[in-house]
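Trying the structure run again after the queue cleared.
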Amino acid sequence: MDGRQDVSAPDLITVLERSTGASVMNPYVREGMQVAVVGFKSHQEWRKEKGLKVFSPRSFGFNFPFFPIERTHNEFSRKKY
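Done. Tokens:
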């Protein structure tokens, strides 16, 4: 969001079609689609060292660490709009 990382695996990141709310699997997301992206906190086991070793941004080839969704939520809720 705004050019920075907000959520990452192992937290669940879900793409929904805006008009119907139906989930859209990654291979079917296309440029120009109207979607909403929703994130959910992962089970605590995935956030431990063993879980992050197999299911973190680095395990998908990204060069950044796990970024918990509640951290984004806390930062977002402090912004003044």
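The chain has one domain: 12-69. Worth checking whether this holds up in the mutant runs.
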